Amino acid sequence: QVQLVESGGGLVQAGGSLRLSCAASDRISSNYALGWFRQAPGKEREFVAAVSWNGGTTDYADSLKGRFTISRGFAKNTVYLQMSSLKPEDAAVYYCTAESSGRYSDYASWGYWGRGTQVTVSS
Length: 123
Fold this sequence. Notes:
Elements: E1 4-7, E2 10-13, E3 18-24, E4 34-39, E5 46-51, E6 58-60, E7 68-72, E8 78-83, E9 92-100, E10 110-113, E11 117-122
């Protein structure tokens, strides 16, 4: 069974940093992109960042460029999201996703989703 397991969420003060991790099961090919979306209460799930199968190409939501960094682990089925200068509006459930069949920022293009990890930012 395909699984994506996120970790690293928690409570952080505004201005702080947090690193999220996601491990994908072996049944997700290492030749596919991995990404992150987030969803705050009452809002739609929004694209955060994505990285290509070999780590050579990354894409970010415009509003997050410069603060968030996505990277692929040495084991290609892992992906990280380093978040810095966090703001209260960054608080959300962050979802790991895998195997995009189209545009990374398109929610519908992704085939697999994790259960999410909560990020809370205190002001």
